[in-house]
Structure formats: C-alpha cells, structure tokens
C-alpha cells in the first residue's frame, strides 16, 4: 500500500479514519518517542530489557516470548563475593545463593521452600554442600523445580538454573551454599529499610501458638521486618508499603488460622545504634527503642526533626540506616 510523504495512509483511503488504525498509529508514535531501539549488546550486558505484550490466559504471544527469550537471554555471569572475588559460572565447584523463601507452597503439608540461584558448578542429587553462614554441612536430597503450578524433582542443574530446597528452617535469604574447602560468601542481596510500622497482636489469645508460628515463618520470607519493643516485648512489623501488611494479615488468617489486630504506627525512620553506645534512657515518646530479628537495637524516630534532636543531644552516638 503506497504511503504519503509522512508515512501515513492517504486521506482518501477507507482505513485512514478507521478507529483501529488510529489507535495503532498512536501506539506506534508512542513507541517511537518513548521507546529505545533494539540493541543486542545492551541486552547482553543487562542494560536493556525487551518488552513483550501477550496473555498467558488467552495463550496469546506466549510461544513468541519463550522462543525469543531462548534466543536473547544472557548467559550466566560472574558473581562477586564479600572478599571481592568473582566466581565464574564455569568453576568446577558448586555454589549458589538463596534469594527467596516461600512458606506454605503446599498448604496441606506446610512445606517451606528456599529458592537457590546456582552461580557455578553442577548440582547433583544427594550432594553435600556447606552453608556459609553457619559452616554446617547440608545434604541436598530433596530438590525441586517449578513451572507454573507444577513441580518436579531435580537430579542435576547447572549455573543459571534455579532450584527449590525443601527447608525446615535452616536457610535464610542471602545465604550462600558451596562445595570445596575454600569458604565462600556472596554479597548481600539489597533490601529496603521499612518506612511504615504497625503493632501486631493475636485477636484470639488462645491461638498464640499458631500466631507465633505464622509470624516467624512469614517474616523469614523477607517481605516484612519484625521488631520487638525493648520495654514491653510487643511485636512491631515494618514494611515498605501498606499492601505488605494486608497480605500478611490475609495469609495469617488463611494459612495459619490466626486473626491478627494491627495498630498503625504511621511512618517512622529506622536507625540502628551500636549496642556499646546504647543507654535505654535515650528512648522517648519520639524515638521508640526496639530490637530487630537478630537482636540488634535500633530507634524508630517519629520524623526527621526527632532524629536531628537526638543527634544534637547525643553528638557522640552513631546512627546507621543499615539492613
């Protein structure tokens, strides 16, 4: 079909004023103005990510996406350790890190899965690995992989693969597992310091066991942070957004049969303090003293003014926004 000088359909063409054509033209103009040209080198370096449009429900575009993914997905890259060493994916020794923990993948069995990204070497069913955080030897005998809502046991896997380890509470997000005599610990995964906080209690005091079990398991997934008041021992939850609290409340009720009461505390500024510099009398109505999951002390400041007031009153005390 011949186009005019502007690359458009001639005005006398019946399609020119068709609403479908007008929508397609507007979308193309948007892509040209806001999008970036396809660049294989940028994709390989992780600087550009292709965008696909489709629907898994309607099975539209799924095959195209999978075929294109196989063609352009970057190969496994080196991963840096806390010592600054870069582990090559072709290294003979097995290594990987836990990037996600999910409780109740199968509610009937209360299972807990630690998802591991393999960084180097080869996984073989039944192999022994070292858990970097504790130095404990672990046998990987019950390992699975997931595809949509199905799962299957895994006998072998290589660098770049993701495997799921059935866990009874041994693993934490950010853990490194490896083989070989050389101790290995990959860099920590990035986390966000919570900004919203709520006090949480069990609605039914007769269900304290399921309440505590649910909190401990869901907190280990990493979506919410758990703190304990220094003076009263109350549970305080911290999150980046309100939706995380709503998901927590829903899962506590539906997965652990525990209704919870959440008392909003609003926005707070979390700042950790060196235990050697801590004096419990530093706490006030404007800076609540709590402990994190590791027992480290921190203050929850009402606002920036409360934090500045604290720093002026205790100039020798160092506060950090760590996670």
Give your account of this protein's structure.
The protein is of the alpha+beta class. The protein folds into three domains: 19-72, no CATH class; 80-178, Translation factors (Elongation Factor Tu (Ef-tu), domain 3); 196-320, Peptide chain release factor 3, domain III (Alpha-Beta Plaits). It is built from six helices and 20 strands. The chain has helices at 19-34, 40-45, 62-72, 208-219, 242-256, 304-313, and strands at residues 79-80, 86-87, 95-103, 112-120, 122-124, 127-131, 136-140, 143-147, 150-153, 156-158, 162-166, 176-178, 196-202, 225-229, 235-239, 260-267, 269-273, 287-291, 297-301, 319-320. The strands form four sheets. Strands 7-6-12-3-4-11-8-9 form an eight-stranded antiparallel sheet, with no helix packed on it. It has an eight-stranded antiparallel sheet with strand order 16-13-15-14-18-19-17-20. It has a two-stranded antiparallel sheet with strand order 1-2. A hairpin with a 5-residue loop joins β1 and β2 (86-87). α4 (208-219) packs across α5 (242-256). It is globular. The termini are far apart. The mean pLDDT is 88.
Unreliable stretches covering 5 or more consecutive residues: none
Alpha-carbon distance between the termini?
Answer: 60 Å
Q: Which fold name corresponds to the CATH topology of the largest domain? A: Alpha-Beta Plaits
Label the structural class. Answer: alpha+beta
CATH class wording of the largest domain: Alpha Beta
Averaged pLDDT: 88
Fourth-tier CATH superfamily name of the largest domain: Peptide chain release factor 3, domain III
Rg value: 26 Å
With helices defined by DSSP (H or I, 4 residues minimum), what is the helix count? 6
Query: What helical percentage do the residues reach?
Result: 10-25%
User: Sheet bearing the most strands, described?
Assistant: 8 strands, antiparallel
Tell me the total number of β-strands: 20
Number of domains: 3
| β-sheet strand percentage | 25-35%
Q: What sort of overall outline do the alpha carbons produce when their principal axes are compared?
A: globular
Order of helices and strands: HHHEEEEEEEEEEEEEHEEHEEEEHE
Strand order of the largest sheet: 7-6-12-3-4-11-8-9
CATH architecture name of the largest domain:
2-Layer Sandwich
């Amino acid at each position: 079909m011949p186009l005019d000088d502007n690359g458009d359909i001639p005005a006398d063409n019946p399609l020119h004023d068709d609403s479908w054509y007008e929508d397609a033209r507007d979308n193309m103009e948007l892509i040209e103005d806001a999008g970036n040209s396809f660049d294989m080198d940028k994709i390989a370096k992780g600087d550009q990510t292709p965008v696909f449009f489709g629907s898994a429900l309607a099975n539209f575009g799924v095959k195209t996406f999978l075929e294109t993914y196989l063609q352009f997905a970057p190969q496994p890259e080196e991963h840096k350790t806390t010592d600054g060493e870069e582990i090559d994916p072709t290294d003979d020794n097995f290594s990987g890190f836990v990037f996600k923990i999910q409780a109740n993948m199968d509610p009937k069995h209360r299972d807990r899965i630690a998802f591991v990204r393999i960084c180097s070497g080869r996984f073989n069913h039944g192999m022994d690995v070292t858990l970097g955080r504790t130095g404990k030897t672990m046998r990987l005998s019950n390992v699975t992989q997931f595809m949509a809502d199905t799962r299957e046991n895994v006998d072998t896997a290589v660098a770049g693969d993701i495997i799921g380890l059935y866990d009874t509470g041994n693993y934490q997000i950010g853990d490194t597992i490896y083989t070989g005599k050389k101790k290995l610990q990959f860099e920590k995964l990035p986390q966000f310091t919570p900004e919203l906080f709520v006090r949480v209690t069990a609605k039914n005091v007769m269900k304290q066991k399921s309440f505590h079990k649910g909190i401990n398991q869901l907190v280990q997934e990493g979506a919410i942070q758990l703190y304990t008041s220094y003076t009263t021992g109350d549970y305080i939850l911290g999150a980046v957004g309100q939706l995380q609290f709503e998901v927590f409340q829903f899962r506590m009720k539906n997965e652990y049969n525990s209704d919870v009461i959440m008392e909003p505390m609003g926005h707070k500024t979390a700042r950790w303090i060196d235990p050697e510099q801590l004096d419990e009398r530093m706490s006030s109505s404007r800076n609540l003293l709590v402990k994190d999951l590791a027992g480290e002390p921190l203050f929850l400041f009402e606002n920036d003014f409360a934090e500045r007031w604290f720093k002026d009153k205790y100039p020798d005390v160092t506060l950090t926004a760590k996670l």
